[in-house]
Amino acid sequence: MSDEQDIVNPENASAERNLLRHLAWMAFALAAWWMIYTRLAPVSKWVTYSLLGLPRGTVLSAVNGQPWICECISGLPKDAPLSAAVEFFVFEVPKVLMLLTLIVFGVGILRSFFTPERTRKLLAGRREFPGNVLAAALGVVTPFCSCSAVPLFIGFVTAGVPLGVTFSFLISAPMVNEIALVLLYGLFGWKVAALYMGTGLTIAVSAGWVIGRLRLERHVEDWVYAVPVGDDPEAEGAMTWIDRIDQGVVAVRDIVGRVWPYVILGIAVGAGIHGYVPQDFMASIMGRDAWWSVPLAVLIGIPMYSNAAGIIPVVQALLGKGAALGTVLAFMMAVIGLSLPEMIILRKVLKPALIAVFVSVVGCGILIVGYLFNMVF
Amino acid sequence: MKKLQILGTGCAKCKKLAENTEAAAKEAGIEYEIVKVTELREIMGFGVMTTPALVVDGKVKVAGRVPEVSELKTLIG
């Protein structure tokens, strides 16, 4: 098609206008996002102390004879617990929800480039180690829902993706995802988020590699390899940028719409801890000195099932009360990465021996991570 | 007569896709028949790896998500 035709084609012109309108909306939304996000701290202070009129709890206000000022030790200004809790809540809820919205939108657009079909094509016939690394990385950006674990498994294996590489994908996809990362970043800072991502990917790569080395193909149910697999359907043809932006919006509506109650619950728990619970409350049980706390956390975590948004409140509660970082990360990974319902679904395609190997290899990886962090931090 | 097949092993999203598809077909005013495909082997035969999926007259139109009724209308129409 020549340029001239492009210009006269009315359909093209309207598509272009449509794209411009989408981009203008995006720019406007981003600017508004930034304006609000950067002003959250002063606004939350204003809401807490001026709008709600909560006491600041500093030494100065001790003159007013507020009862909670007794908490002030050695005359240092210290916020009253209720004020501290309220300020934390009023600041964190919009902050985390806004971060989540932005990241989910971005990831939604990114994911429109990585359909499972394309991921499979990228992974088919890969050599083992590079294949494991690529599979773990693709697990982060490929859309994944645990209800699709079995069709994905069959689709990968029958298309010639090595078993170990398939497992690297299946481990990383639920465990290292944008919701977990945003929540960890928002509540505990970028270091914890980066640690979680780094160790999650390392476990996915190494556990997948080990499973591949063990040559367990005969423990896959026989019928799996006999499934007649249809050709790659290229389901939705070429996507335009408008489609991709729409995908981002759909992802926000779907994911943020689903997880916001957990986020608020988590922050409420965190706010309570922030204001009231004494530090080091959990230190004796889940602290770094209790060597058995890591295996115990993993054992409790494996049968439990929750998504990242559901488990973060618990993580926050534990960390806030003085539990060790390694123990808590191990618990979180065991809950998200390994679960009883997932095992039951996978039983359709895997023989029990392979499921046992899968659980123990990943479990060991999580144990090592837990101990490592307790040692380093 | 359009043959609309809903592929999925029975999760909540599969039901939602079936509902939306039915609504879209009614709005479009076409003659249709909805068939639910729940057998894993059959689903895999379409080359689909993410459920739910919608197949219109043997062609995969949607996989791994639940579109709005309006979008479904253009997909099946």
Structural overview:
- The complex is a heterodimer of chains A (377) and B (77).
- Chain A is mainly α and 377 residues long.
- Chain A has one domain.
- Chain A has helices at residues 3-8, 10-38, 40-51, 81-111, 116-123, 128-141, 149-158, 163-175, 178-188, 190-213, 222-225, 241-275, 283-286, 293-301, 308-320, 325-337, 340-346, 352-376.
- In chain A, helix 12 (241-275) runs parallel beside helix 15 (308-320) and helix 15 (308-320) packs antiparallel against helix 16 (325-337).
- The model of chain A is unreliable at 1-7 and 58-78 (pLDDT under 50).
- Chain B is α+β, with helices and mostly antiparallel strands and 77 residues long.
- Chain B has a single domain, classed as Glutaredoxin, CATH 3.40.30.10.
- In chain B, strands 2-1-3-4 form a four-stranded mixed β-sheet.
- In chain B, helix 1 crosses helix 3.
- The longest helix of chain B is centred in the N-terminal third of the chain and has 17 residues, at 12-28.
- Chain B is globular, with a radius of gyration of 11 Å.
- The mean pLDDT of chain B is 86.
- The A-B interface holds A 115-117, 120, 143, 145, 147-148, 150-152, 154-156, 158, 223, 227-233, 235-236, 250, 348 and B 9, 11, 13, 40-41, 43-51, 53, 59-65.
Spatial strand arrangement across the major sheet of chain B: 2-1-3-4
Figure out the total of helices of chain A. Answer: 18
Q: Please, how many domains of chain B?
A: 1
- How many separate domains of chain A? 1
- Please summarize the sheet with the most strands of chain B: 4 strands, mixed
Gap from first CA to last CA of chain B: 11 Å
- From the spread of the alpha carbons, the general shape of chain A counts as flat
